UniProtKB/TrEMBL annotation:
Protein name, per record: Spectrin, beta, non-erythrocytic 2
GO molecular function terms noted in the UniProt entry: actin binding; phospholipid binding
Residue ranges that the Swiss-Prot or TrEMBL entry lists as coiled coil: 322-349
Source organism superkingdom: Eukaryota
Bias kind Polar residues: ranges: 592-611
Family the UniProt entry places it in: Belongs to the spectrin family.
Location within or outside the cell: Cytoplasm, Cytoskeleton
InterPro entries: PH-like_dom_sf (IPR011993), PH_9 (IPR041681), PH_dom-spectrin-type (IPR001605), PH_domain (IPR001849), Spectrin/alpha-actinin (IPR018159), Spectrin_repeat (IPR002017)
Gene Ontology cellular-component annotations: cytoplasm; cytoskeleton; membrane
Amino acid sequence: QKEIQGHQPRIDDIHRRGEDQSQVDGERQSLLKERLVELKDLWDELIAETDKRHTRLMEAHRAQQFYADAAEAEAWMGEQELHMMSEEKAKDEQSALVMVKKHQTLEQALEDYAQTIHQLANSSRLMVNGEHPESERITLRQAQVDKLYAGLKDLAEERRGRLQERLRLTQLKREVDDLEQWIAEREVVAGSHELGQDYEHVTMLRDKFREFARDTSTIGQERVDGVNGLADDLIESGHPENASVAEWKDGLNEAWADLLELIDTRTQMLAASYELHRFHQDATEVLGRIKEKKEALPSDLGRDLNTVQHLHRLHITSENDIQALSGQVNQVQDDAARLQKAYAGEKADEIQRSEHAVTAAWEGLLQACQARRLLLLDTVEKFRFFNMVRDLMLWMDGVNLQIDAHDSPRDVSSAGLVIANHQHIKSEMETRADSFTACTEMGKSLINNNHYATDEIREKMAQLQEKRHKINKKWQDKMDHLQIVLGVLQFGRDASVAESWLAGQEPLVRAAELGTNVDEVESLIKRHEAFEKLAAAWEERFVQLEKLTTLEEQEMQRRREEEERARRPPTPPPAEQVAQTEAESQAHDSAARTSLDQTTLNQSVSVNGVHSDNDTSQQSLSQSLSVGKKSEPKRVCKPKQPERGSESESVNGPGRDSGLASSRLEPSATLPGRGGADSEPEIMEGLLCRKQEMEAHNKKAATRSWHNVYCVLRKGQLGFYKDNKSVSSGVTYHGEMPINLEEAVCEIAHDYKKRKNVFKLRLGDGKEYLFQAKDEAEMSAWIRSILSSVPAGSKDSPLGPRPLSRAMTMPPISPSSGDAVTMRNKDGKEKDREKRFSFFGKKK
């Protein structure tokens, strides 16, 4: 082919020169073309034949290469077949494992050679598909190679099975030999005859043998079952050595059954020895515990109920512990009865002696516990009765403090609250009646049962009855006193209302205008007639004011009794009795004055729970208690209607002198002003619900929600805290600065209807707060305290006029009622007079 390729340029040159010559020589043109065509055909035929020969040579080369590879594969597989047909047998497990591993290596090589077989098959298939001239021979040779490889694999699998069976047989033999040796070692321990010298020794032997038997049974049974399973598998699989396998299995099972029988026999022997030694040990321990419990019983009975109850609980616990011993005692008795049937002679006598000692000690302990329990129960009942008496005594002390600690009423509403609280105390006393009855019944029951502390119980019962009688009497005396105070306060309120009405009507009465024509005169007459009708309607109220209060009636009764005693001939009593009587009288008078003075002094009288503009009711009640004891009241008739010049007269109800009447309305010269510079600053604190309405003038607060704050009023400032602990630490609520009460106004929030007991605080800078108290009394107390804390001279301070509450049912006093008014006489001249009209005459 290379030579032909070398002649290709020459052939091409001949074709080119022939074509050139044919174009030059026209005569020989046809001949040249024929020769060129012939030359081209011959050259193409030569190239085609050359290609065919090259193809035949390549096919022959591929066929010879296939034959060579097939021969090499047959030779390798023949060599491996010799290894597979070996009849060598392993003598032990180790050699069997070596042979198995070697065979696994051969099988892996055979698997790896499968790639070569696959390549031969692919090569033969390509040649056959390409219609190779030797396709039949190639196919036959490939079939021989495949058959030889398949036979080799079958031999390898068969040899692997034989090697595995031999390996399992050697493994079974090793397991059987190891297990038989282990059983022989265990039989030595199970065949021991040692039974122990005492309880501790036999317990140790029993525990150790139990562990030995448990381990032997668990481990041995697992191993025997495993060996039997291997043997059964070999027999079922048809192993050539089935007879040997069955013989090994029977020998192993027989040895295992003998070992289990030895273990059971040894266990029974140790159990019998353990029961005998345990009985003696249990009897000794129970006897020691019984003696210990009996010695541990205390003799102390305690000094109070808690101690006795604690001792009783301890005794109950001790009895429970002792009852726990009853099971042990019964167990000792049952064991003794059972063992006496199994033993005789000296051992039986020892068992009986131990049982008798335990029974005697147990009966003695039970008797001591019962005696101690009864004594503690009696002591518990005694102290329980004493505690009931003490609780009732303390409760009566608390009631006594409540009776003494009630706030003195400042007005009619507060007096009603005080009386209601006092009535609540009575309800509590009635509720406690069952407790007193139960206590008395308990004391009588203890006395009837011949309690060892009968004398003390009788003494406590007598003290309880005496104190109960005293507290009932004190409550009734305080109730009578509060009724008297209520009557006095009601009179002061009604008098203040009446005076306010008179002051409001005075401008109409004093009017000097008589009219300039008929219409004006008729109008004035109609207005005066309306006033007379109104005055007639007030007549009944003035009549009620003329009635004596309970205090005045008692005072008159006391003076009549003193006058009667003074008219009697004197009978000198013993000196001691005189001194005692005078001391009691002075103490009674002092207590009455103090109680009633505190009712009215240093407090501004309020009408229906809200402060009024004057303090006349307060001062009148204050002086009525002192003036009423010095002089007999005088009756002065009240005029039917006011007249000119009546401002200098006093209008008093029957039984009241001018001094008493005027003292009800005029401020006492000895009392300090509420807003004086020398007065102590009001201090008050407590929990209120706060809401800020205004931040400044005409500017509402951004957040208008209610929050619970702890308020502290001190030195003209109101501070807010989270709770009382924050007060001590000085941490204010959200860091707010205390507000200054200068120019502050505090009043009831009548225009706020969503909540009850709400009052309003408006500051000078325009800020406005709402506060909610828990009840009306607390609200009034806060209003009074805040108003008292406003600095003197500030706007709307307590010294200035304060508006009347809407709760007032009478017309308020005119703001100009205390100023000079201009009046005209008949000549038309102006006359300045001081307006002094009042229901009571002023003190000169």
